[in-house]
Design a protein that fits this description.
heterodimer, A: mainly alpha, 11 helices, about 80% helix, globular, B: 6-stranded mixed β-sheet
Chain lengths: ~240, ~270
């Protein structure tokens, strides 16, 4: 566990000096604060901006950060050197994954504070929904980072995936076709579940889609990881 | 003499391409071994296999138990946004080494004034020294150095050579790759010439050069700058003594080939070829 903590501490210092990663953790929470504070319409659905931006945050920040960090470490050979220092691949991945998860938490707490869940005493459910969504994005980001050799290919692969999961929840509000596709994605279900917290109507379908996505992300990561492990002594 | 590492019939493929072909050798304790070859010969692949970063397609590498290994790779593997100190602190923590060791190494390598500088702002020579510090953070038995002075100015390369020789004197076994024959001749007790994935010659630098000393001649530079070649025979000795009597000799040189010439003879390629 000590190695995991060392990797987390390293990543904390590195991310703090890397504005291109840092911005992902800040952008949507700030947008959430601004829009929730500025736009207050009578007929607006409950937690409209919070659910929208939280879903976009879940679909973007962990996915892009994870893919970017892993691919940069591969490209610059820092990962290879780390693994020669007796850091096991699982320790490295756990360290980076835990860091990204924790780095997402301030944003999650901001959304939680802005949402009606804070008033209605459903903070735990709110945090749980977003946490599951973040873990799904982490797995997808890790799959991209592990599968790509460098940052450029990771960006080429990661941006379309990020756009899909981050922007479909928004598009689904304006377009029926997009909504039909979006209902199978975890980020859309995160949005729906947050919106449903206030009225207590949590659909089993939403929970099922969320966990099905979790399993698919996990399998995808596992397959790509094993494939890379076969090529190198790391990934 | 104790053997630290033994490679036997190591062969490696990248896709269909055979990059290493049945490499066998031993690394003895306390020696400095140089793997000499041009770019693309397979040096980095071999050092990656020896250090366990790559599993060879065929063959075995046996490492002594309790053999502590330090690695300095060609690509530095340093975190550019982090300071010199932070880079070394990560590894000091991983090796469970106290921070005092970092200070000691920074002083030894002349990098103590740069400890707060982000690595991205350092010159190549300085990054090399940081990389060297990292390799020495834990007490190592064997030090693997991949092109330790490649692309450095003479002063920086000299500093790195000095550090390697200090390690040698301290009893550390060193295995280095290089395409610089002067580096190999200066630092190494024995060298292996690697070409197209095969070791084409292996031995002490002097012995290898003597082996290819087919001309067996002596070059004499006479006063006035005229250079003359004499056979290493009684006839040559007579001529030499004549010139000595006449006080005409400015300098005398043996003409055995250097490692660069040996490599060219054996492979038809130059060490500096891309």
């Amino acid at each position: 566990m000590k190695n995991v903590r060392i990797i987390m501490r390293k990543q904390w210092k590195d991310t703090w000096k890397n504005p291109t990663i840092l911005i992902h953790f800040i952008l949507f929470p700030v947008l959430g604060i601004i829009m929730t504070g500025m736009v207050k319409e009578k007929d607006m659905p409950q937690d409209f901006f919070v659910s929208l931006f939280a879903a976009m945050y879940v679909g973007m920040a962990p996915l892009i950060s994870m893919a970017s960090i892993l691919s940069e470490e591969k490209e610059k050979n820092t990962l290879r050197v780390l693994l020669t220092a007796h850091v096991a691949p699982w320790q490295y991945l756990s360290g980076i994954g835990s860091f990204v998860f924790l780095a997402c938490m301030p944003g999650v707490l901001v959304f939680c504070h802005l949402s009606d869940a804070a008033v209605s005493g459903q903070k735990t459910a709110f945090l749980l929904i977003l946490s599951v969504g973040i873990i799904e994005s982490l797995l997808l980001g890790a799959a991209i980072g592990v599968g790509c050799r460098n940052q450029m290919t990771a960006a080429s692969a990661g941006v379309p995936v990020m756009l899909l999961f981050s922007f479909l929840p928004m598009l689904s509000m304006f377009n029926e076709k997009a909504a039909k596709v979006a209902e199978y994605t975890y980020s859309e279900q995160v949005r729906i579940l947050i919106g449903a917290l206030g009225n207590g109507k949590i659909a089993a379908k939403s929970v099922a889609v969320l966990f099905l996505n979790l399993i698919i992300s996990g399998v995808l990561f596992g397959v790509l990881y094993q494939k890379q492990r076969g090529r190198n002594n790391f990934f | 003499m104790k053997t630290w590492i033994e490679a036997r019939d190591v062969t490696h493929f990248f896709g269909q391409k055979k990059v290493l072909n049945q490499i066998s050798f031993q690394i003895e304790k306390g020696s400095v071994t140089g793997l000499l070859g041009p770019s693309g010969a397979g040096k980095t692949t071999l050092i990656s296999i020896l250090t366990g970063q790559i599993v060879p397609s065929a063959g075995t590498v046996k490492t002594q138990e309790r053999c502590a290994v330090g690695i300095m790779m060609d690509s530095f593997g340093l975190y550019e946004r982090l300071s010199v100190w932070d880079n070394l602190k990560i590894y000091a923590d991983l090796y469970r080494v106290p921070s005092g060791k970092i200070r000691e190494l920074l002083v030894k390598t002349g990098m103590e004034t740069e400890k707060k500088t982000p690595v991205g702002k350092l010159s190549k020579g300085m990054r090399n020294r940081v990389s060297f510090c990292r390799a020495l953070l834990k007490d190592v038995d064997i030090l693997f150095l991949d092109e330790p002075a490649s692309g450095l100015d003479p002063a920086s390369a000299g500093k790195i050579h000095e550090l390697i020789l200090q390690e040698k004197q301290a009893g550390t076994t060193v295995f280095l790759t290089t395409h610089n024959m002067h580096e190999a001749e200066t630092l190494c007790d024995e060298v292996m010439l690697l070409n197209a994935g095969k070791i084409v010659e292996h031995g002490e630098p002097g012995e290898i050069c003597m082996k290819y000393n087919t001309e067996n001649k002596i070059e004499v530079v006479l006063k006035g700058g005229e250079a003359r070649m004499l056979p290493n025979s009684s006839r040559g000795a007579w001529q030499l003594s004549e010139w000595m009597r006449e006080e005409r000799i400015l300098s005398i040189h043996s003409t055995e080939p250097d490692l660069e010439e040996v490599f060219l003879t054996v492979t038809g390629r130059r060490l500096t070829e891309e």
